Amino acid sequence: MNFITTCAGGLEKLIVTEVLGWGGVIEEMETGLVRWSGPSASGYRACLWSRFGSRVLLVIDEFDLGSVQDVYDQATRIPWEDHLAAGGCFAVDCHLGSDAVLTHNRFAALRLKDAIVDRFRDRTGRRPDVQLKRPDVRFHLSVRDNRGTVAVDLSGESLHRRGYRHHGGEAPLKESLAAAIITLSGWDPATPLIDPLCGSGTLLIEAALMRADVAPGLERTYFGFQKWVGHQEQLWQELVDEAMAREEQGQRNTWPPLLGYDADPEMVAVARQNVSRAGCDEQITITCRELSRLHGEDGAMGWVVCNPPYGERLSSTETVRYLYRCLGNRLRESFSGWHLALFTGRPEYADLLQISWRETWRLYNGPLPCALYVATIPAPDPAFCWRVAAVDEGGGEGRDLVNRLKKNLEKRLPWSRQEEIECFRIYDRDLPDYNVVIEIFRKWVFIKEFSSGKAVCEQVADQRWKTVVGTVRSLLGVGRDRLFFARYRRDGRSQRGKGGRKVEVGEGTARYLVEFTPGTVWGFDLDQRSVRRYIHDHAAGKSFLSLADRDGAAAVQAALGGADKTVTLAASPEAAGRMAENYALNGLYAKNHHIVVADVHRWLAQEDGQYDLILLTIRHGFQEGGEKRRTFSPEWCGELIDTVMRRLRTTGSLLCAVHERSFTFAQHVSERYWCRQRDRMLLPRDAERRAGRCRFWEVRHKR
C-alpha cells in the first residue's frame, strides 16, 4: 500500500524515522510531506503513533491532468464503492501545488465530488451525502504539475489533535510541533525538564507522553478509517491493545521533575486542565510564577525548553525584545550548564539571550516561519570591574580634580561592589572650578556640566571642560564609545552633548534600561537608590503605588521584593513605554503590575483602591493637569498629602521623596499624621552633597 504523511515544514526527517520504525519504505520526501509504502498495519500505526505527522493518506489512484474536466473523467473510473458505503457521507479536500496545471482548488474538489456521486448513482441508484464535519470518509485530491493523486484520509482530522487540549491560549503551539521540539532538543527523559513560559503546557505534556511511551492517538475518538469500507477492525484493535500495554509499562518508568511556570493565573489554570486530561497530574507540576522568580532546581542538571510569546501577550515589539533579554539573564544566572532549546517565532530575537547556539532548525508553526535553537547555557559573564589608572597629578591645571576623583573612587568602588551597585555618583560639584556631576552606569560614564554663570568666560569654561573629560578618560580608561555628556552654555538654557544610546545596568537583583540623551539620563534616579532598597525589603505580600515616577524603577524593586500588586502612574505614553520595557527586562507580568498614564490628582480622585506602601516623588516639573508645576506652596503640598493618604491603608506607609528646596509641609500635615524625616536613612552615600536638595519623609496614619 502507498501512503503519504503530511507534516509541518521542517519535520520531514522525523517522519522518515517514524516510518522506518513501522516497517515502511521511503519513496520520496519533499517539503511538508513524505511518500512511503508498507503493509496496512503500518498505515494504522502511523495514525496511532505518529507524533509529528498531520495526516496519513492512503493513495488509491494517480493520473495525468490537463484540465478540471480531466479530474471528473479520471475520477469516474475509480471504484469508490471499495472505500465508501452507498448510503454513507463523505467530504473532499483539494490541495494544488505551486506548479499545478489547475488553478482553482474549490472547483477541482467540486468536480471530484460530482464524479463520486455520479458513479454511485449510476451503479446503485443511490448517492452518498456530503458532510464536511467528521464524514464517514474524507477523500483528498492533490495536484503537482500535471499529475493528480487521490487518497483516503485515514486520519480524518489532523493528528496534532491528541484530545487532551481543549484550550490553547493565544497563538497555541500544535502538539505535533511541540513533540518535534522536545525530540530535536535532545532531551534525556531521565533528567529534569523545565518550561519557564509554559502557556497551556503543551511542551511538557508531549514530553511526558514520550517518557510514558503513550501513543499520541490513543485518546482520540475519531479517525477517518473507522467507517472506511476497507477498515480492518481486528487489526486495529490488536494495535490499540499493544499500545495500551506499552503505556502501562511506560508508567512504571522513573520520572524526573517536569516543571512548568507561567505568570498568568488564567493560563496556569488552563495548563493544569490540559495536564489532567492528558493523565499527567502526577508527573507534571504547573506553578504560577513570573519569569523574575525563575531559579534552578536542586539536583541533576537537565533541559530548559520554552516557546516565548511572539508579542501577542505583550504590549509592543520592544517589550518582547526585553523579555528575551530577561530570559537570557535568568538562564545564565540560575541554569549554567543546563541544556536549552528555544523555539521562537521571532528568530531575530534569539541572539538577545547572548548564548552561542550549537544547533538550529528552521520550522513552521502554521504559516509562521520559526526556528528552534539548541545550546548549553553558559555561566554568567563576570561582573565588570573598574580599575583606576595611575595618573601623575603633576603640578599643572587639573591637579585638584585628579586628586579629588582618586579619593572619591578609592571610597566608592569598594563600597559599590560590596552593595552590589553598578550605578553611582563619583563626583558632585565637589570643587568650585569644576561645576560638573560625574556618574557611573556599569561600564559607561555620564558627565553633566552646569553653567558657571557670567563670572567665568567661555574660553576658561571650555578649558575646564576639556580637563574634566581628559581626566575621566585617563583615570578610568574610558573610550569615547562609553562616555556620554550633557553640557550647558553660560546662559544655562541651551545645551549640547552626546547621547542616544540605551544600555542595561543592574541594581541588586533588578535590571534597568538606561538611556543616555543629550540632556539627561533616563532609567532611574540615583538619589532614590536607598528608597528603592527600602521598598524592596518591605514590599513582600503588599500592594504598592508609585506616583509621579519617571521610569517605574521603584515598582520593579517592589515586585522583585514580593509585592502582590503594583500600580505606577506615568506622566506620558513615552514614560509608560520605558516602564513596560523595564518590567519586561525583569520578567514582570503586566497584569500584576499596572502602568497608568494619568494626572496624579485626577487619578487619585477617581481611584478607590487602598495600598500598603506608596511612593510620592515631587520634583521640579511635577505634572499636574497637563501642566508642569514649578512652585510648591505649603497649601498645595498639604492638599496633595491629604489626597494621597486617603489611598493609604491604616497600617501602611507613605514615602515622600522631595527634590525641591522650596517644598514644605502645611502645618496640619504634621498634626494630622505621624511624620518623620528620613534623610539619614534614605539619602544614599554618594548623594551626601545633595543633603537639603534631596529630602525624604515617612508619613503614616496616627493610631
Distance between the termini: 86 Å
- The structure class reads alpha/beta
Task: Name the shape in a single word.
Answer: elongated
Q: List the uncertain runs.
A: none
Average pLDDT metric: 89
Task: Give a quick account of the main beta sheet: strands, pairing sense, barrel closure.
Answer: 8 strands, mixed
Q: Would you report the number of β strands?
A: 32
Radius of gyration, in Å, reads 34 Å
Q: Strand order across the biggest sheet?
A: 2-3-1-4-8-7-5-6
Helix content: 25-40%
In percent terms, what proportion of residues is strand?
25-35%
Q: Specify the number of helices.
A: 18
Layout of SSEs?
Blueprint: E1 2-7, H1 12-21, E2 25-30, E3 33-37, H2 40-49, E4 53-64, H3 68-75, E5 89-96, H4 105-124, E6 129-130, E7 137-144, E8 147-153, H5 175-185, E9 193-195, H6 202-211, H7 233-250, E10 258-262, H8 265-277, E11 284-288, E12 303-306, H9 317-334, E13 339-344, E14 359-365, E15 368-376, H10 399-418, E16 423-428, E17 436-441, E18 444-449, H11 458-476, E19 483-488, E20 495-498, E21 501-507, E22 510-516, E23 521-522, H12 529-538, E24 543-547, H13 553-560, E25 565-570, H14 573-585, E26 593-597, H15 600-606, E27 611-619, E28 622-624, E29 627-629, H16 634-645, E30 648-659, H17 667-672, E31 673-677, H18 679-682, E32 695-701
Parallel strand pairs: 5-6, 5-7, 9-10, 9-12, 10-11, 12-13, 18-19, 24-25, 24-27, 25-26, 27-30
Antiparallel strand pairs: 1-3, 1-4, 2-3, 4-8, 7-8, 13-15, 14-15, 16-17, 17-18, 19-20, 21-22, 22-23, 28-29, 30-32, 31-32
Helix pairs in contact: 2-7, 3-4, 5-6, 9-14, 10-11, 12-13
